[in-house]
Amino acid sequence: MSTVKLGRSGIISDKNGFGALPIQRISFDDAERIILEAFDNGITYFDTARFYTDSEQKLGRALKDKRDKVTIATKTMCTTTEQFWTQLEQSLTDLQTDHVDLYQFHNPDFCPKPGDGSGLYEAMLEAKKQGKILHIGITNHRMAVADEAIESGLYETLQFPFSYLADERELALAESCSDHDMGFIAMKAMSGGLITRADVAYAFCDQYDNVLPIWGIQRMEELEQFLACAKNPPVYDDDMREFVSKERIELSGSFCRGCGYCMPCPQGIKISDCARMSLLIRRGPLSVYMNDESKAEMEKAKECIHCDQCKSKCPYGLDTPTLIENCIKDYDEVLAGKPL
After folding, report:
1. pLDDT of 232 strictly over 90
2. Segment 99-123, tens digit of pLDDT
3. Which residues, 6+ apart, have CB-to-CB distance to 23 below 8 Å?
4. Residue ranges of the alpha helices (H) in the chain?
5. Which of 29, 118, 236, 298 has the smallest number of Cβ neighbours within 10 A?
């Protein structure tokens, strides 16, 4: 079984990290069965976030008696020090633990640093001093913030979108983390559900000895696919390379990373949310995305005037207006009670 060391954090995991975002959609009992099956088959790295509704509670319930045998990583979307401490304490309560192995700033629009006036990084250091967190990390969708975090030397890990749809900049980002002895955690290794072959996704990530993919899992059959890959690692051979080349042509234009470079919109549309809505409602709990706020956002998206400013600013060359149109269609179908 392949393992990976997350840089100077010293955290070691097998090449299967458990992404606990999708378990929001299943019951506590079903979540516990899947989590324990993962643990019993060698998975020890579990990733969640305060923002993932009841995900932390489900992990806490399942792993409370195995705490010293697992690595738990969670995240905070705090923007103030008051929020930092409130969210950390709630995470500890829900996870039924006295410490988090890796605590990460969750997709901030800037790179928190000492002396920047926010006090956020100082709060991280204080929490580490108190033993409530062991390691400090950051997650992001923005290349500029990721680059700054690496160069700062302040973070032990970076979590960033990375899959076989990755472009040269994302591949270079993983290499830069390796050069700086920084752990690289691959979020969206299945590109939010666009990728359907677990063997190819696993084999691609397995080429990089410093990359830990976290697979979003909500069904036992999904878990079984990755466990099978770990037991008999697939080889990234010429057939897979040919398959990936075709996939990149067909799918790359559908994968919005949510980086936000397309913003602001002259019509006030929250483009980075709306262009990902089809993926979000397939993986997250519908209650989060079918609330009044999200409904208003998607209704606002219908006011797109096709000025193509977002399209011209997208660093990944996406046809953003078309993505939004497709997401509006999917969203309206779910509202009407139709399955995706």
Report:
1. yes
2. 999 999 999 999 999 999 999 999 9
3. 31, 34, 35, 55, 58, 59, 217, 218
4. 28-40, 55-63, 81-95, 120-129, 143-152, 168-179, 198-206, 220-231, 238-251, 271-274, 277-283, 286-289, 292-301, 309-313, 320-335
5. 29
- Asked if residue 92 has pLDDT above 80, the reply is yes
> For position 93, what pLDDT does the model report?
98
What's the 3-state SS for 81-134? HHHHHHHHHHHHHHHCCCCEEEEEEECCCCCCCCCCCCCHHHHHHHHHHCCCEE
CA dihedral 180, 181, 187, 189 (to 10 degrees): 100
pLDDT in tens, 254-273: 888 887 778 889 999 999 88
Q: Which two tokens stand for residue 83?
A: 């929020």
287: pLDDT confidence band, cut at 50, 70 and 90?
Answer: confident
Evaluate whether 5 touches 12 at the Cβ level (below 8 Å). yes
C-alpha to C-alpha distance for 9 and 81, rounded to whole angstroms: 24
CATH for 3-246 (3.20.20.100, 3.40.190.10, 3.40.50.620, 3.90.1310.10): 3.20.20.100
Q: In 3D, which of 119, 41, 57 has the Cα closest to residue 92?
A: 57
Of 81, 9, 16, 50, the residue nearest 211 (C-alpha) = 16
Please state the domain extents for the chain: 3-246, 271-335
**Amino acid at site 131:** G
pLDDT level of residue 1 (50, 70, 90 thresholds): low
